[in-house]
Structure formats: C-alpha cells, structure tokens
Amino acid sequence: MADLVLSARGMSRRFGGLYANKDVSLDMHKGMLHAVLGPNGAGKSTLINLLSGDLPPSAGQILYRGEDISGWSPDRRSRAGIGRSYQRTNIFPGFTVFENCRLAAQSRKPRALRIFSKAVAYDDLRDAADRAIEQAGLAERRDVVAATLSHGEQRQLEIAMVLATSPSVLLLDEPLAGMGPEESQSMVALLKKLTPDHAILLVEHDMDAVFAVADVITVMVTGQVLESGPPDQIRDSIAVQEAYLGEGEPDDE
Amino acid sequence: MPLPRKKTRNYLPLVLLVLALFPLFGSGYYNELIAKIMIMAIFAMSLDLLVGYTGLVSFGHAAFFGVAAYSVVLLSPKYDPGSLWLVLPAAILTGAAVAFVVGLFVLRTKGIYFIMVTLAFAQMIYFVFHDTPLGGGSDGAFLNVKPELRIGEKVLIDLNEPMQFYYIVLVFLVAAYVFLRVLLRSPLGHALAGIRSNEHRMQSLGFPVFLYKLAGFVTAGGLAGLAGFLSACQYGFVTPEILSWHQSGNVLLMVILGGMGTLNGAAIGAFAFVVLQEVFSALTKHWQLLMGAVIVTVVMVLPGGLSSLPRRLKGLLIGGGNRNG
User: Smallest Cα–Cα separation from A198: which of A220, A176, A165, A231?
Assistant: First the structure.
C-alpha cells in the first residue's frame, strides 16, 4: 500500500441543524486518485472545503502525515502541501496567465522581506510557473490576461495555479466542469500523469472520466459516505445504483 | 507590474527638472505652496499603496500623519533645534508603530467595516490630542525651532531656511516615489496586488494574507509619518485638525482625483487638490462647493482620475481608439 498522506476521521460539518457532512472518513494515499461521486447537495464541495481549511469542521479530525491539522488555516495547509482548485473559477482576472502562476509559485518562497528585489527576476518561480502552464496545456496563452481567456481555459488556469505551488495533495473540485471534450481529454491525461507523485481527491460529475482515472471511489449521499471502494465494486454496488446511479444523469451544480 | 504595459513617454525627468528649478524663479509664497503640494503628494502616495495597490480603503490615514507631526514637536527641545538624526526617524517610526497597532485590529475587518473602523481609530487618536494636554489640547502646539542636521559644530541642513526646506522636501518626495516603485515590483508588491485582486485565492495559495496586509499598512503608516514630519516642519505648529477625519477625507480625495493605483496619480491628485483649494478659497468662502463639483465631475467623467486624461485624450483624437485586447 502506498503512503497514507491525508485522511479524515469522523469529520462532520453542521450548518445550523443541517449536516453538510456527517461522520465522513476517507483516506488519500500518494500515487492514488480518490474520486468522490454524489448527487447535488451530497456534500462533496463541503468535503473539499473542510480538507482545505476553507471551512472548520464541527467535529472529527483531519490528519496530514499523521498530524492533526483540523485547526490549521487554509494558507498554512497550502504551505504544508495541500493544494486545491475551485469549482467556480477563482483566479486573478487582471493578471496574465504567467503572473497568475508565478504568484502561486511565489507562495512557496515568500521572500517578502526582499523588497529591493524584482519579483519577476526569480528563475525558480518563473520555471515553476512555466512548468505548470505547460502541464495544464496553456503554453500558447502564457501572456494573455486571464479575464480574456475562454471559460475552459480559465478552468485549465485554475489547475495550473495549484500545480505551480508544487503540492503533494491535490483537492480538485470539478476540474472538468465547463471544459470542451478536447480539453477534458487532455485534463484526464494530465490527471493520470500527476497521480503517481500526488495524492489526489477528485470531485467530478463526469462518470466516464471518473471511472477512467479513479483508483478508489467514494459515493456520498446527503453528507454521508454511502460506499467506498475500487471502481468495479462501486459499479456493481446495488446500494449505489439505487441511491445515485439509478437517478439518471445528475445536473451540473 | 503584473499587467503588460505599453511603453509610454516618461515625463518624470521633466517634472523633476521643473520642481528643481522652480525656486530660482518662484516667490516665497509659491515655493511654500509647491513644498506643501510635495508633502501632500508623499502623503497621498502612501495612501495609494493601501487604496490603489492593496485594495484597503483606509479612511483614517490622517492618524499616522498626525501622530508623526506631533512627535516632532514633542521630541524637539523647546528653544533649541532638534536633531534631524533623532526627530526624523522617530517621526517615521511613530507613524509606522501606530499603524502597526491600529492594523492589528482593523485588518481583521473587510470592506465597509474596514472603512468605518479605520475612521473610528483615527477619531480616537484625534480626541486623545484634542482633549488631553499631551500636545497642547485643542490649541495645538508650536515647534519654535525646526530641526537641523549637524555634524559636530557644523550645521549641514537647517529646516528653518525656506530654500533648504524646499529641496529637502523634494529629495524626500523622490525618495518616497522610488521606494514605492521598487517595493511594488518586489515579491511583496506583487503579493499586495494579488490581495487586491483576489484575497481569498491568495490565502488558499498559501499566503498569510494578514501579515502581508499588515506589512503594507505599516509601510504606508511610516510614509505618512514622513509627510507628517515635513508638514510639522513647514508650518512650525501642529493642531488636532491634522488628525481629523477631514484630513483623512482630503487625502483620500487626492488619491481618487488623481487616479487610484498609479502612484503618479496620487501626486497629480495632491497637486490638483491643493491648487484648486487655493484658487477656490481666494474666489469665495464657499470654496468647498466648487471643490465638491470638481470632484463629482472628475469621478463621473474620468473614472481613472486625472492621470488617465492624456490616455483618454489620445484615444479620442485617434478616433474610437479601439485596440484588440
């Protein structure tokens, strides 16, 4: 078994009386892609927000390399190596693609006190940014202002920014949403390429993509884990079919 | 800077030349006016670092200007010149230190709350000086003799001399401008621009945004302190009014008038504001009405402020001026 990197233990999140996540436990290993499926409102985005620190859990523990990080701020988790992307594109619209990624890379080596140095002069940051842009397939759009990118390209940029921070954990919230078939294909290929070196959590509606790349699938319904296991087990599970797959294609959120 | 820029003609050397030669031709009154404008330009640029570059609309920036000005008076001997070695760094540090303490509180708020809380802190400090004998209460206090810079027995710089004062202000204006330009292209400057654009994403990328905002706030406070030091030295007295919300509002108007987030705009705004204030108040005692009309007009007609005027005009002359982005 690969190394256990990030795990949730009995994690819950309440909004008033409503449980968005209830007693969720899951493990993420290096070299494995863990996909999370579920209908709208199943708590998938909440799960990512809890793991990334955007939301504090109401109960339970989040362990990162054996350490309880439940109380850590999002920036501290990011610096520790937990990177996330957003379902709704969350970029710096006025900056170029390159500066979006260069700034992301800069967060690894803050150098905030070197106020007499030029931010764009650091080769390591430029390299990290260009590598991430290349990986996400945006090389030709490197010097374009992000706001003028197409929706699909902004989704690619969203991923490139996370990659520029060289994370060891990737929490990806519907990276394929809004992408064309070609872009989707290259993103799936990228996910496969990234899996050996990362622990990836993928929330995604695109079934074909999920079954193509996932090593483990967790199905969530109303904030709880319904079933978790390898793709074949999930495909054949009667409980999953009844609760989720039987409903037909879920709508996009 | 993050955005790609077209090469524009650089007028700065020309402006610098005019400022350097001005006292050779100007009279005492105009020299004093230009010196005042340059001091206000430093003050406005320090605020632009927050408003225009970090996205923090501070409505209490006069507090840092004011406490620094008071520190000059309080640290200078009564009948002897204070030492520039001591008084100047002390004034800048005072501005920065007060900004640090205030920043620890106000930077936890956002948007409209930030505006209100900065205003509240500045008013608290205003009343400390207005209602306690610390700085002479509501009457203010005099700086009888302005600081001088001496090495041994030799006086190198004497701020009591108007000419020397003018050139010292000019040197500090250039220094503040260069310092901010260098800062803005540094990793810190880029991070502040990122915070302005999308603070949430900055945090999720791993930036401790509070510390970055605090660094920006303290830097702006220190520069406002420099302006406060120069202002105290120009007039030779301080009153609580320099800490009041009018002063905070005026400097914010200068930044808006000139164009936020351009640095040059802050200086242009300071120039326009002070000159208009002089012209209008010579015309009528209801000069604030005219000033208000000008500001409303500029904001509505020129959303980018006065500094965007040449670009706008060029666009009109060329006709449409549509460029493919």
Answer: A165
CA distance B53 to B55: 6
Q: How far apart are CA B105 and CA A6, in angstroms?
A: 34
Asked if B159 and B165 touch (Cβ cutoff 8 Å), the reply is yes
Query: Least CB-CB distance to B197: which of A78, A95, A161?
Result: A95
The pLDDT tens digits of the residues spanning B20-77 come to 999 988 788 999 999 999 999 999 999 999 999 999 999 999 999 999 999 999 998 8
Query: Coil, helix or strand for B17?
Result: helix
Residues in A lying within 8 Å of B, measured between beta carbons: 52, 54, 73-76, 78-79, 84, 86, 90-96, 99, 102-104, 106-108, 110-120, 122, 143, 145, 148, 161, 165
Closest Cα to residue A216, out of A204, A205, A226, A201?
A201
Q: Are strands A199-203 and A18-29 parallel, antiparallel or unpaired?
A: unpaired
Instruction: Tell me whether strands A33-37 and A216-221 are parallel, antiparallel or unpaired.
Output: parallel
The label of the residue with tokens 């302190």 reads: B225
Dist CA A161 CA A104 (whole Å):
6
3-class DSSP state of B73: helix
CATH code assigned to A1-81+167-253: 3.40.50.300
A169-173 sheet: strands from edge to edge: A82-84, A169-173, A199-203, A33-37, A216-221, A224-229
pTM of the complete model? 0.91
CA B31 to chain A, closest CA, distance in angstroms equals 33
Q: Using CA atoms, how far apart are residues A34 and B228, in angstroms rounded to an integer? A: 59
Q: If 0-12 CB within 10 Å is exposed, 13-18 middle and 19+ buried, where does residue B17 land?
A: exposed
Q: Measuring CA to CA, which residue among B244, B283, B251 is closest to residue B267?
A: B251
Q: Is the pLDDT of residue A198 over 80?
A: yes
Contact A92 B201 (CB under 8 A): yes
Q: Are B63 and B96 in contact (CB under 8 A)?
A: no
**Alpha carbon B114 to chain centroid distance?**
19
Bridge-based pairing of strands A169-173 and A199-203 is parallel
**Among candidate residues A220, A202, A199, A225, the one with its CA nearest the CA of residue A212:** A202
Q: Is residue A38 classed as helix, strand or coil in its secondary structure? A: coil
SS3 A33: strand
Per domain, the residue ranges of chain A are 1-81+167-253, 90-166
pLDDT digits (tens, 9 = 90+) for A84-115: 999 988 999 999 999 999 999 999 987 877 88
- For B206-246, the pLDDT digits (tens) are 999 999 999 999 999 999 999 999 999 999 999 999 999 99
- Min Cα–Cα distance to chain B from A206, Å: 25
Count of C-beta atoms within a 10 Å radius of residue B279? 12
Give ∠ CA A49-A241-A236 in degrees, rounded to 5.
Answer: 105
Q: Where are the alpha helices (DSSP H) in B107-161?
A: 111-131
